Amino acid sequence: MAKQVKRIKKAVESYDAAKAYAIGEAVGVLKAFPQAKFDETVDVAVRLGVDPKHADQMVRGTTMLPHGTGKTVRVVVIAKGEKEIEAKDAGADHVGSDDLIEQIKGGWFEFDTLIATPDMMSKVGKLGTVLGPKGLMPNPKAGTVTMDVAKAVKEIKSGRVEYRVEKTGIVHVIAGKISFTADHIKENIESVMESIHKAKPSAAKGTYIKSITISTTMGPGIIVDPQSF
Predict the structure, then answer these.
(1) 227 Cβ neighbours under 8 A, 6+ residues apart
(2) pLDDT value at 8 more than 70
(3) How high is the mean pLDDT of the chain?
(4) Residue 11: strand, helix, or coil
(5) 166-169 contact pairs (CB < 8 A, 24+)
(6) 149-158 and 82-90 helices cross at what angle (nearest 10)?
């Protein structure tokens, strides 16, 4: 614990916490921080000028990180017939229909993303009380309710990330691992920001991107200048 505190203190002292850095410079600062003993995840936190309580100001979407997430994503597909075979061939970790629904109902959550075909959603919908709070409920806007299960599985496995604005107006998205090169982290973050810009609701008024902060799992936040995108 003492080593961890010392490492964080050293990181905090190495940059100006009140300064808004250009994205390239911010990533450089992040890469220069003393490293933890594991490969930390890089997180982007974007505060938006929206009120998520209003449905017409909800911000939700997906983006393909050009250099992936650096994580092994466990994908489950609920489908029947040919779609079940397609999902298996595409590399899904678990595939099933009623049996898998019962397994999840019984408390099995050994997966990161759940994909379902539209014809199975009437049954999957009944799992809303257990899937919803965990952020695992399939959604057409996120591309997880689809007949093209093979494409969805491949994209998620290769770096597609989903985001959704929280009640506080903040969007959190992972942008890779600290072991990535600075250029790869920068390009992943640029992809995230481009997608969030495109997802701007027409009902949003005033400043849309209020602030951007990047950080690692165990590190302090670095403010990024929104004008650098």
Answers:
(1) none
(2) no
(3) 92
(4) helix
(5) 166/52, 167/52, 167/53, 169/47, 169/48, 169/49, 169/50, 169/51, 169/52, 169/210
(6) 20
CA distance 148 to 87: 9
Give residue 153's pLDDT band: very low, low, confident or very high (50, 70, 90).
Answer: very high
What is the token pair recorded at 139?
A: 């959604």
3-state secondary structure 113-130: EEEECHHHHHHHHHHHHH
Q: Which residue has the tokens 């594991």?
A: 38
Model confidence at 85, in pLDDT bands (50, 70, 90)? very high
Query: Residue 31: its pLDDT value, please?
Result: 93
Number of residues that this document lists for the chain: 229
Residue 82 structure tokens: 């040919």
